[in-house]
Amino acid sequence: MVTLYLKRSWHWIDYSLVFFRLCWYIINLFIIISTAPFRPNEQYWMVILFTASYITPQLFHLPNRISSSGFILSELILTGSLFVWVTNYSAYVIDFMWIPILSIAFLSATRTQWWAAAGISILPLCIFVIGKPAAELFLQYIVALILFGTMGLAFRFLLQKNEEQKALVKELHIKNQQLRRKIILLSLYLY
Q1: What is the pLDDT of residue 3?
Q2: CB 136 within 8 A of CB 91
Q3: For residue range 128-149, what is the model confidence (pLDDT) as tens digits?
Q4: Which residues contact 63 (CB under 8 A, 6 or more apart)?
Q5: Which of these, 52, 18, 54, 50, lies nearest to 33 by C-alpha position?
């Protein structure tokens, strides 16, 4: 039976990621409501879709229940399509994807990182398809992809090394206890 969720305890990086995503949501929601050049009906749908693009991936990243595939897929589909839609109104929305790129890179495991990278890379091509003159946007997106993708991968690497170190310390502690027991048994045998 294949498990959908990875069972692991949260670390400070997971809490930071949720905090950054919440800040990203609040700031961009404020921008959508106050300054976005949408018609009133479009603004209503934009708020609903943006809220869904925040909540849905977050449902896959809960304490002790992490589905990296579900998170990445929902983030790519919802936030990515929203990003492509928003570029119809403004070419200066590259910061909209900073935190999603960081989140996707952090939660991508070895088996998901290739299709996650492909999904992130397709977004600028979609902008070209809808006809935006996006040479500057494309370059900004590539820089953001490299910067925030590298940060997300670095956080994941840090977490993996931390977990490996904790496992090693636990193993050394067990071996130390076994050695103490053997020393006690040996001392009892000798005396």
Answers
A1: 46
A2: yes
A3: 666 665 566 777 777 888 888 8
A4: 9, 10, 14
A5: 50
94: confidence class by pLDDT, cuts 50, 70, 90: low
Are 131 and 87 in contact by the 8 Å Cβ rule? The answer is: no
Question: What's the rounded Cα separation, in Å, for the pair 83 and 124?
Answer: 10
Give the span between the Cα atoms of 125 and 86, in whole angstroms. 15
Estimate the crossing angle of helix 12-34 against helix 135-190, to 10 degrees: 160
What are the backbone dihedrals phi and psi of residue 132, each rounded to the nearest 5 degrees, phi first? -80, 135
Higher pLDDT, 156 or 36: 156
Question: What tokens appear for 94 in the block?
Answer: 């590259």
The secondary structure of residue 172, as a DSSP letter, is: H
CA distance 142 to 101: 11
According to DSSP, the residues that pair with 65 across neighbouring strands are 62
Q: How far is CA 49 from the centre of its chain?
A: 19
Which residues does 158 contact at the CB level (< 8 Å), separation at least 6? Answer: 13
